[in-house]
């Protein structure tokens, strides 16, 4: 039982998602990226919210939205 718990702990802490997804407003013209789709900064977005990877957002020189933690 203890061993199973330990194995689970090791698995849980070593698990990393392949990429972090972020949200941006529109496919171009966005200057900020958001971790949360429900972010306050995105509520004023008038075009559609686009899901992309954090790497891609940073590659587009987007910066983290000021409302994020
Ligand atoms: Zn935001």
Task: Describe what you observe in this structure.
- By secondary structure, the chain is α+β, with helices and mostly antiparallel strands.
- The protein has one domain.
- The protein is built from three helices and four strands; from the N terminus they run H-E-E-H-E-H-E.
- The protein has helices at 2-14, 40-43, 54-59; strands at 21-25, 32-33, 49-53, 63-64.
- It has a two-stranded antiparallel sheet. A two-stranded parallel ribbon has the order 2-4.
- The longest helix has 13 residues, at 2-14.
- The protein is elongated, with a radius of gyration of 17 Å.
- The relative contact order is 0.23.
- Residues 34, 39, 41-42, 65, 67-68 line the site of zinc ion (ZN).
- Zinc ion is lined by residues 34, 39, 41-42, 65, 67-68.
Key descriptive features of the protein:
69 residues, alpha+beta, two-stranded antiparallel sheet, two-stranded parallel sheet, 3 helices, 4 strands, binds zinc ion
């Amino acid at each position: 039982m203890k061993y199973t718990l330990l194995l689970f702990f090791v698995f849980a802490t070593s698990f990393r998602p392949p990429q972090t997804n972020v949200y941006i407003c529109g496919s171009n013209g966005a200057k900020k990226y958001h971790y949360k789709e429900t972010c306050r900064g995105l509520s004023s977005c008038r075009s559609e919210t686009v899901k992309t990877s954090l790497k891609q957002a940073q590659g587009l020189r987007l910066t983290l939205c000021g409302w994020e933690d």
